[in-house]
Amino acid sequence: MGNSEHVESGLKRRVAHLERLIEISRSLNSTLVLSTLLHNIVEAAQEISNAAECSIMLLDRKSGQLHFTAATNLPGVRAIVVPMEGSVAGWVVKHGEPLVVTDPARDPRFHFSRTADAISDFETHTILAVPLIARDEVIGVLEAVNKQDGENFTQEDVELLSVLGNQAAVAVQNAILFQQSDLISEIVHEMRTPLTSVIAYADLMQRPEITKEQCAQFAAIVQREAARISEMTTNFLDLARLESGRASIAQDEVDLSTVILMAINVILPQAESKDIEVAVDVPVMMPPVRGDAQRLHQVMLNLLSNAVKYCREGDKITVTARAEEDHLVVSVSDTGPGIPADSLPHIFERFYRVPGTEKSVVGTGLGLSITQQIVEAHGGEITVESEEGHGATFTFTLPRMQS
Question: Mind listing the pLDDT tens digit for each residue in 188-212?
């Protein structure tokens, strides 16, 4: 190929890449769902850079920490804290400019990535990192790791990923602002009902015609509704941190069998008080998972507590766990009233309560949303199967820890 043909071929490739960036920009601006947007960004970055893996880290202004929030081909890295010192991403945030590392073993800025490689069983050969800048502020970092052809990242790769980073930063900031506004709107709306009860019954308690017995009854209602508000705000803050990727998820070796059995021991008294049988089929020894034992304990407690809440006297809860080739699978089944078909698609939505259960079952409607966020932060998935009148089964998977 002659020099002119080579130049022409290069120009055609560049034009094709720029046209693709325009298409990607349109798609990024078509969603305000942060998790979907972040996934779309890393997939697009992987495509245009021809990288083996791409990831996004977002900066938490309050704590000054960077957090993994999305990655391709690396399950379970979400919410890992990335130190500002000794990391490529930290350097990019501080300097606000792209960085290519071609010899990670000798680069002090790669220190943290050695730990990340050990966690993910991944070997980094070269990195391209670009800042995500919105309104003249660095809000995060977009990284591409290892060209699939084995070559180093080029100046063209730097330019293309930088353009994508600029587009992505604006889209991410818009999604975060929308999410915050949406969450605040929802929490205010949900708080109105218990607050109205608190105000109304507090007013009644001050009336002279109210008896001591009635006053005690109203005080109990006020206490219950106040506790509900407290639980709702705690869950709301937890969910907000998880959805934004700012919640710290430990990356320890976790014995899931122990986590499951400890959660069962916590809910057993509640189950026994309702004459609900709890059957357990969990191997004593299972392959470990990498993650946060406290958060996974929270997942099990949420699922078990829900089962106890909705089960009737004499019902049965069954907990099973098994190891498959790449994942561990945990299920919590019950013989309770089940979930109506039209409610199943909404069951993991924030504040969703199955119609008709609001008065009979106490809750905030946030537990399953939090559960889903924790499972997904560990690189897993959670699903539900149910037939009204025939109980429900919640099943989640977690990737086995790489040896």
Answer: 767 777 888 888 888 888 888 888 8
